[in-house]
């Protein structure tokens, strides 16, 4: 069964796109079929995968969301690009801003992205959605389409108020639109091992949000090599295969897959007990 994961945080620059690339390519290296969806009008995910002029693409996510809204048909794999490290990409660009505005007056406005993803997901084990740095309609659509959410948090800043708002939005989407949505957890990114910010932030998250908020065991280190990957259009595994960031993203990829199997076991256990 396909698992759809949204990478969300309304704060910009926290590592959502870098995580989408390296989790996606990590999963592909483990033999999974992966579609990355660029749901951010900045088109950074598209750019990071080497498609450096996202605004010039003739077909992008905006095109297909517009067709979905108008109930127009499209080819099954229309607009899907392929990256040489083994992942597919539904690119995003500036046209998503206009689509986001028109969503407001559309019927089923929260579930247009879900309809699009439902139409393509059968070909994939994982669909990863890179969200906008906002809690606007496109992020709501991503949460409505997802089975789970990963929240990248940059380890230098206290997530404080923003985290509460994000968790409230996730809870609201779960209550009103998508009851199956679960929170996979918080991924600490850009962790500087010379400071103890990451430990402080883990402590504060656990103190303020308790057990309902898992913090992934893996932390992504601050790494100039990781920062360079987007300009190169490569993953960290190719750009700096022996570095700490590649090791961390590979470990994170395993952790994400193990959460999936833990949940399947828990569900199986529940079913066995209710018989
Ligand atoms: N582990 C890391 N160490 C150092 N720099 C990093 C790391 N991960 C990402 N960066 C850099 O930090 C910046 C922000 O990362 P990224 O684009 O992944 O964040 P984002 O949350 O997707 O941003 P936005 O919300 O604007 O889309 C980028 O310049 C990126 O190259």
TrEMBL record:
Coiled coil located at which positions? none
A Pfam match: AAA_31
Q: Where is the AAA domain?
A: 2-181
What's its catalytic activity?
ATP + H2O = ADP + phosphate + H(+)
The record's annotation in InterPro entries points to: AAA_dom (IPR025669), DNA_Partitioning_ATPase (IPR050678), P-loop_NTPase (IPR027417)
Superkingdom assignment: Bacteria
Q: Which CDD domains match?
A: ParAB_family
Q: What does the similarity note say?
A: Belongs to the ParA family.
User: Quaternary state and partners of this protein?
Assistant: Dimerizes in the presence of ATP but not ADP; ATP-binding is required for double-stranded (ds)DNA-binding. Interacts with DnaA.
Put simply, this protein is called: Sporulation initiation inhibitor protein Soj
């Amino acid at each position: 069964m396909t698992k759809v994961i949204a990478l969300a945080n309304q704060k910009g620059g926290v590592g959502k796109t870098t995580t989408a690339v390296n989790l996606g390519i990590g999963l592909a290296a483990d033999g999974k079929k992966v579609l990355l969806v660029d749901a951010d009008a900045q088109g950074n995910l598209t750019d990071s995968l080497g498609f450096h002029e996202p605004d010039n693409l003739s077909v992008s996510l905006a095109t297909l969301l517009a067709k979905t809204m108008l109930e127009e048909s499209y080819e099954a794999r229309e607009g899907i690009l392929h990256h040489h490290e083994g992942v597919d990409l539904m690119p995003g660009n500036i046209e998503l801003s206009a689509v986001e505005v028109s969503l407001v007056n559309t019927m089923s406005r929260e579930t247009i992205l879900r309809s699009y993803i439902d139409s393509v997901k059968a070909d994939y084990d994982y669909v990863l959605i890179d969200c906008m740095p906002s809690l606007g309609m496109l992020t709501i659509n991503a949460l409505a389409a997802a089975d789970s959410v990963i929240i990248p948090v940059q380890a230098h800043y206290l997530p404080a108020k923003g985290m509460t708002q994000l968790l409230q939005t996730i809870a609201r989407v779960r209550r009103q639109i998508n009851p199956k949505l679960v929170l996979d957890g918080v991924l600490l990114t850009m962790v500087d091992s010379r400071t103890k910010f990451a430990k402080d932030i883990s402590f504060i998250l656990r103190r303020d949000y308790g057990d309902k908020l898992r913090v992934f065991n893996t932390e992504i280190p601050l790494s100039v090599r990781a920062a360079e990957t987007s300009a190169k259009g490569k993953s960290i595994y190719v750009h700096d295969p022996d570095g700490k960031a590649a090791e961390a993203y590979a470990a994170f990829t395993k952790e994400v897959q193990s959460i999936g199997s833990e949940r399947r076991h828990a569900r199986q256990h529940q079913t066995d007990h209710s018989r």
